[in-house]
Amino acid sequence: MCGIVGYIGQRQAYPILIKGLHRLEYRGYDSAGIALINPAGELGVFKTKGKVADLEALVANRDVSGTVGIGHTRWATHGEPNDANAHPHYSQTKNLALIHNGIIENYAVIKNELKGHGYNFRSETDTEVLVQFIEYVKSSGNLDLFHAVQVALSQVVGAYAIAVIDKNNPDCIVAARKSSPLVIGIGEGEYFLGSDASPIIEYTDQVVYLEDEQVALISRSHGLDVRNLSDVEQTPEVKTLQLSLSQLEKGGYPHFMLKEINEQPDTLVNCISGRIDPAGTDVILSGVINNKEKFLNAKRIIMVACGTSWHAGMIGKYLIEDLCRIPVDVEYASEFRYRNPVLGKGDIVIAISQSGETADTLAAIQEARKAGAFVYGICNAVGSSIARATHSGSYIHVGPEIGVASTKAFTGQVMVLSMLALTLGKLKGTIKKGEYRDLIKDLISIPTKMKQVLLLDPLIDEMSKIFTYAHNFLYLGRGYNYPAAMEGALKLKEISYIHAEGYPAAEMKHGPIALVDAEMPVVVLATADRIYEKTVSNIQEIKARKGKVIAVVTEGDTVASSLADYVIAVPPTNERFTALVTAIPLQLLAYHIAVNKGKDVDQPRNLAKSVTVE
């Protein structure tokens, strides 16, 4: 959600900023802008509603020279998406320019105070209030920019990742963060800024992740100085990025989403690697084993997540309750943090997030830690805020996910939760040895089965053309297929803008069946499991109302297939892991319908990849 890029060094900043903004487009945005200090010492701000390409067109004949600059892609929070509300924002004197991710909660109070001091505002944003406030503090206290930022931020309530430049001091950038990610890349006599590592990796693999309430002075002449809001010097840890530039390219695919769907067999191999022994007889998830006593003594487990990660958590609930016999609750992080949950020592909270920066999930972690619960993180981004805020955890190791609609991160999360349940079940003795080994064997086979399902892409592509103009979809499943159905519905609505809902198949009779008619496509997950016959009964109920059924079945199926209008057959899979296999056709169906409708598959409207605000 929003993207930050910055540069200071000896090179021209503009090409680096523009390329960095393109790299950040996957995060979701509705306007873009840059600020540069040119060789004459003038501070220029260029910004526009729309895409980075629109920004490039805007500055085509403008002076964009200079070796220091900042850039931003904005996802609107305060104020509609337009040119005035786009970042960067000038201060009143136009000496300062600032970019900002996050939300300043007390901006209205500060704005009223500044109006009393004669300040005027050009936008509706909380960000402009912040840059005006920094300038007020700087001028009234006769402070330099760095100390003015410290003082101003000590009076701010909310979340922020900011970068500020001052035309009267063109040799530095001041950056700071709280509850919103910010990374500094260290080159040879030059520095780079990013809201994540994607704009940086092309130039350096040496980075510093700022911690909450840290302020960085990035100086061309004096290097990097990091302090907290109380001006206490901090010692930043320089880390080496485990990321390659090729992971950020489409690799010949028309969209990142299609590339990432097709990557899943390989990404799950990476996810398993080092965690299942070479003989395929044991799961070794160190985050669980190293905290064995906490897991063995857990009274219950609470999973907190949002969106796709919540659906993965639901599958995790079924797995842990089934294999470990521990009660599990799955909570939306956004609700969990506000409803005064009953938590305490002996509880385990598992926080799930692709980006590791989800604001609501981070807040839920803080609530859990305050209550004395043990917090375990499952995320994709190494060094992310959630990885640092939790007591322990597991990375899913699926590589950067650029498409906004999550695909490989979902299957990576489910794979880690599957290994967690197997590890804990073995520790607790709730899984018999033979069943334990059989389940591991089944889990190892998933990437191969995914490859088989990917061969169905032409069939699904043709099928999708029939449903391009549907207005509503219903997705149904039972047991492990229920959360998989919800995830399939989410994929469709995210990228095609077709209304879709996922339901437990039996609950269809308690309301949604009223919607079923000849115009209503219904996707039914009817793979072979303990309640297959019940699902077949639900298909019959749909057909009796003339609904159009797309059935995802197990290869060799005859009963559900004979009832359905359209059939997608997947390899036989243990029902506990079936969501890993059925995810592929549901992702492909959503993808092809969206492409047929001419939608922006990788950057669907109004959505952001990393949701760093409430």
TrEMBL record:
One Gene Ontology MF term: glutamine-fructose-6-phosphate transaminase (isomerizing) activity
Taxonomic superkingdom: Bacteria
One Pfam family per UniProt: SIS
A GO CC annotation given for this chain: cytosol
Catalytic activity: D-fructose 6-phosphate + L-glutamine = D-glucosamine 6-phosphate + L-glutamate
Entry keyword annotation includes Transferase: yes
Leader sequence residues: none
Catalytic residues (UniProt): C2 (nucleophile), K609 (for fru-6p isomerization activity)
A biological process term (GO) from this entry: carbohydrate metabolic process
This enzyme's EC code(s): 2.6.1.16
Domain Glutamine amidotransferase type-2: 2-221
Entry-linked InterPro entries: GATase_2_dom, GFAT, GFAT_N, GlmS/AgaS_SIS, GlmS/FrlB_SIS, Ntn_hydrolases_N, SIS_dom, SIS_dom_sf
Quaternary structure note: Homodimer.
Entry function: Catalyzes the first step in hexosamine metabolism, converting fructose-6P into glucosamine-6P using glutamine as a nitrogen source.
PANTHER family xref list: GLUCOSAMINE--FRUCTOSE-6-PHOSPHATE AMINOTRANSFERASE, ISOMERIZING, GLUTAMINE--FRUCTOSE-6-PHOSPHATE TRANSAMINASE (ISOMERIZING)
Protein's name in the database: Glutamine--fructose-6-phosphate aminotransferase [isomerizing]
